[in-house]
Amino acid sequence: MLTTLENLDDLVQSGRAREAISGYSLALETTPFEAKTERAHLLAGRGAAHMTLAHWHEAERDYAAAEHLLPGDSSIAFTRALLLYRVNDGSQLVFRRVLPICRDAFDRADPATRQSLREQVLDNPFYKPLAEALFGNQ
Predict the structure, then answer these.
(1) What is the pTM (predicted TM-score) of this model?
(2) Where are the alpha helices (DSSP H) in 2-135?
């Protein structure tokens, strides 16, 4: 069983999200509760795996727990806002709520994280309205 965070992330990227979810869950079982940063990253990774399978409620549960552990993490806040937008089918009401969260998280992120967040939005046509509002027409 692959248990390093990079290997689990690679499983998600290669379309093996169910296997990754099992790996994240196993890693969470063996990670001490005091290791907040590591647990938050494992929860966010498992949340991302759930998102690829359209398991919206499970993804929200994991991202909420991750954000509770690391409230200042811009990547977690940004992705949780994208999840809210996704779950609500891109409604205008939710768009107006999500956009400032995404802007704030993006502005707080370091340059490498900003690039990752930008790609997350630009690579998915569903997020086109958010991409245009955040980054202009690219």
Answers:
(1) 0.87
(2) 5-13, 17-30, 36-52, 56-69, 74-87, 92-108, 111-122, 128-135
Cα 13 to Cα 17: distance, rounded to the nearest angstrom: 8
- How is residue 80 written in tokens? 């949780």
Instruction: Read off the tokens for 34.
Output: 């005091």
Spatial distance between the Cα atoms of 116 and 25, rounded to a whole number of angstroms: 24
Distances from the Cα of 93 to the Cαs of 25, 31, 84, in angstroms?
A: 34, 38, 11
Cα dihedral 75/72/85/126 (nearest 10): -20
Tokens of 92: 């205008």
| Digit-coded pLDDT (tens) for 34-51 | 999 999 999 999 999 999
Judge whether 60 and 79 are in contact, CB under 8 Å: no
Copy the structure tokens of residue 57.
């409620």
The CA distance from 13 to 119, in Å, is 14
Q: How many CB atoms lie within 10 A of CB 12?
A: 23
Q: Between vectors from CA 19 to CA 6 and to CA 33, what angle results, nearest 5°?
A: 60
pLDDT digits (tens, 9 = 90+) for 45-91: 999 999 999 999 999 999 999 999 999 999 999 999 999 999 998 88
Judged by DSSP in three states, 114 sits in: helix
